[in-house]
Write a structure and sequence with these properties.
It is built from 1 helix and 5 strands; from the N terminus they run βββββα. The chain has about 70 residues and is mainly β.
């Protein structure tokens, strides 16, 4: 996973909550209960190849508000 730490403008989010999910901005996920966030630029599903966020979202859409969970 290619990632970038950012300072979010949104507070009160749960850790792992998707704040943004689009081809232009990538996928931004809240960390530390909304005190920070991480921007995902590339993702890889198990057994799959690494994809840029825009390409990943074409085949595996995710919605703002969903929670990434360890699994």
């Amino acid at each position: 996973v290619d990632e970038q730490l950012i300072n979010p403008q949104i507070t009160g989010a749960q850790s792992g909550q998707i704040l943004v999910a689009n081809a232009e901005q990538g996928i931004i996920v809240a960390c530390d209960n909304g005190q920070s966030a991480i921007r995902l630029l590339e993702l890889q599903k198990p057994g799959g190849k690494r994809l840029a966020v825009a390409d990943f979202l074409k085949g595996f859409p995710v919605a703002v508000g969903e929670i990434f969970a360890q699994g």
